[in-house]
């Protein structure tokens, strides 16, 4: 298993957010994590990428290596890229500069390799290619999300962590992001997708976990959860 979470507890000060959760992501797999706000989904992702400011107990393993004692920049060097909720692009830099920032850890890569990675991003998101010289802060929300995902791909990750990539986007843009995630996965990148849009998450992933109150409430094949009466009622409005 590429990523394995074992009995993870996490919190801030005396408040425990995650109550001993366990889950995993296999290589070349898309796994989604759905659930209500404040369930602890972002806390989990931040724990994996070591961006969390709180405490974490249990273990997080990437290809058998524990991540809990690693610094955030080391995590990126292992091949894990994290697209945070809210995009967090550099608004005053151009789109091209934002993308190249994603390749900061690839110092040994030559310019041709970096250019190939940019071409890969543009093939996924043609609109990004049309905006290369624009300041990223002048783009629409959907275009900024494409830049954020593209910047993460510049790392050439083996595991991509995505936190609410469809939040605030128009339905047409959500479809484009959906298609891009499937294409990224076909190229061999495993994805752990955190989403409020349960319909999107379950339609793009092969397996899923439902996180509620800091605990795994349900898990299984995404298609089965998509037709689960409790999931449909709570998260799909059906």
Keywords:
Rossmann fold, 238 residues, alpha/beta, 10 strands, 38% helix, 2 domains, four-stranded antiparallel sheet
Task: Give a brief rundown of this model.
The chain has 238 residues and is α/β, with parallel strands linked by helices.
Account of the protein in words:
By secondary structure, the chain is of the alpha/beta class. It folds into two domains: 1-79 and 157-170 and 189-238, P-loop containing nucleotide triphosphate hydrolases (Rossmann fold, 3-Layer(aba) Sandwich); 86-156, no CATH class. Helix content is 38%, strand content 27%. The protein is built from ten helices and ten strands. The strands form two sheets. It has a six-stranded mixed β-sheet, with helices on both faces. Strands 2-1-4-5 form a four-stranded antiparallel β-sheet, covered by helices on one side. A hairpin with a 2-residue loop joins strand 4 (55-62) and strand 5. Helix 3 packs parallel to helix 6. It is globular.
């Amino acid at each position: 298993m590429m990523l394995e979470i074992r009995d993870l507890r996490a919190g801030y000060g005396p408040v425990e957010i995650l109550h001993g959760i366990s889950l995993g992501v296999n290589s070349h797999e898309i796994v989604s994590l759905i659930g209500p706000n404040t369930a602890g989904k972002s806390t989990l992702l931040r724990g994996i990428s070591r961006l969390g400011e709180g405490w974490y107990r249990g273990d997080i393993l990437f290809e058998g290596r524990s991540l809990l004692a690693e610094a955030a920049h080391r995590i990126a060097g292992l091949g894990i890229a994290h697209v945070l909720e809210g995009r967090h692009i550099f608004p005053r830099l151009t789109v091209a500069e934002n993308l190249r920032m994603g390749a900061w850890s690839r110092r040994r890569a030559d310019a041709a390799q970096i250019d190939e990675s940019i071409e890969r991003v543009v093939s996924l998101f043609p609109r990004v290619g049309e905006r290369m010289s624009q300041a990223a802060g002048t783009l629409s929300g959907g275009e900024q999300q494409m830049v954020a995902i593209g910047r993460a791909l510049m790392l050439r990750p083996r595991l991509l962590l995505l936190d609410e990539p469809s939040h605030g986007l128009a339905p047409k843009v959500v479809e484009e992001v959906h298609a891009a995630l499937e294409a990224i996965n076909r190229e061999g990148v495993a994805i752990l997708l955190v989403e409020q849009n349960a319909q999107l998450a379950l339609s793009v992933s092969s397996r899923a976990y439902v996180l509620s109150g800091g605990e795994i409430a349900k898990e299984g094949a995404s298609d089965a959860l998509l037709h689960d009466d409790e999931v449909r009622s709570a998260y799909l409005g059906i």
